Amino acid sequence: MASTTPAKTKTKVLKFDSEEDVAVALAKYTADLSEKYIKQKGSFSVVLSGGTLIDTLRKLVESPYKDSVDWSKWLIFWVDERVVPLDHEDSNYLLAWRGFLSKVPIPTSNIYAINDKKSPADAADDYEERLKHLVESKILPISDVTGFPKFDLMLLGMGPDGHVASLFPSRQHRYEKKRWVTFITDSPKPPPPRITFTFPVINSASEIAMVITGADLADTTKIALGDGQTPGSTPLPCCEVSAEGELTWFLDKDAASKL
Ligand SMILES: O=C1O[C@H](COP(=O)(O)O)[C@@H](O)[C@H](O)[C@H]1O
C-alpha cells in the first residue's frame, strides 16, 4: 500500500549574509532545476506560496534568467490560496501575478489559479479535481512512494507561528492524510477562508525550498531545524516538511541568527 511518508529526504541548510543574497541564490537554484526537469521530462511544475516568497523570487525575472529559462514549459500551481476574488489584494494569485508571472512568458493555460467563484469547500474540491485530471492526462505524475501527485518544485514560506502553506498549528486540517487539497474557513491569519495542499502532497515533491528571511522567523527556524519540539505542544507544521527528494532551506542571517 502507498505510504505517505517519503522514503528519504536529503536536507540542506544554506545560510546567506542578507535577504538579497538569498534572492540571488534562489533564482539560480530555480533556474538550474528548471533546466534539469525540462531536459528530463519536458516540463517543470512549480508550486508557489504567497507572502514574502514572491518578492524573494524577484531575481528570477531579471537577466540572465528572464531570457535563458524556457518559460513555455513551466506549469504553475499554488500550495495555498485565500478564497477571495483573484483581483483582491489578499489573493496569492494577484501577488504572484504582479511580482512574477506578469514578467515572464508562461502560457496562461499553464497557470492553475483557483476558481474564485466557489465556496472554500467547493474551491478545494475543484482544485483537487483539476489536479486529478492533469494526472489522468499524464501532465502530472504520481509518486510511486506515496501515491500522491509529485510536483517538481515546491517553493514554501513559513509564518512565525510555524505555519506552512495554510496549514496552521492550531487547526486539525493540518493532519489531513487522504485529501490532496483541503480548506479552512477560520484561518488564524486573515483572510479566514483558504484552500491548501495537504502534507502528503507537499511532501511528495521532488524538491522543496523553504525560503525563510527576517528576524521574526529566527525562533521558529531554530525549532524547525533543531529537535522540532515546542515545549508542551505538538510539533509545528514547519517541522513536518520533508521532500521525497531534496529539501533545501534558504536562510538569511537574521532568520539563522538563533541556530
Ligand atoms: O498566509 C500565508 O503565509 C505564509 C507565510 O507568509 P510570509 O508573509 O510570512 O512569508 C505563506 O507561505 C502562505 O502562502 C500565505 O498564504
Structure description:
This protein is an alpha/beta fold. It is 26% helix and 17% strand. The strands form two sheets. Strands 1-9-8-5-2-3 form a six-stranded parallel beta sheet. A three-stranded antiparallel beta sheet has the order 4-7-6. The longest helix is centred in the first third of the chain and has 23 residues, at 19-41. Bound molecules: the ligand O=C1O[C@H](COP(=O)(O)O)[C@@H](O)[C@H](O)[C@H]1O. Belongs to the glucosamine/galactosamine-6-phosphate isomerase family. 6-phosphogluconolactonase subfamily. It is an enzyme of class 3 (hydrolase). GO terms for molecular function: 6-phosphogluconolactonase activity.
Question: Helix amount, in percent?
Answer: 25-40%
Uncertain segments are none
The ligands bound in this entry are: the ligand O=C1O[C@H](COP(=O)(O)O)[C@@H](O)[C@H](O)[C@H]1O
Element-level helix/strand string: EHEHHEEHHEEEHEHE
Tally of strands: 9
Structural class: alpha/beta
Specify Rg, calculated over alpha carbons. 17 Å
Beta content comes to 15-25%
How would a crystallographer describe the biggest sheet?
A: 6 strands, parallel
Number of contiguous helices: 7
Q: Assign an overall shape.
A: globular
Which strands sit side by side, in order, in the main sheet? 1-9-8-5-2-3
- Mean pLDDT, as a whole number? 94
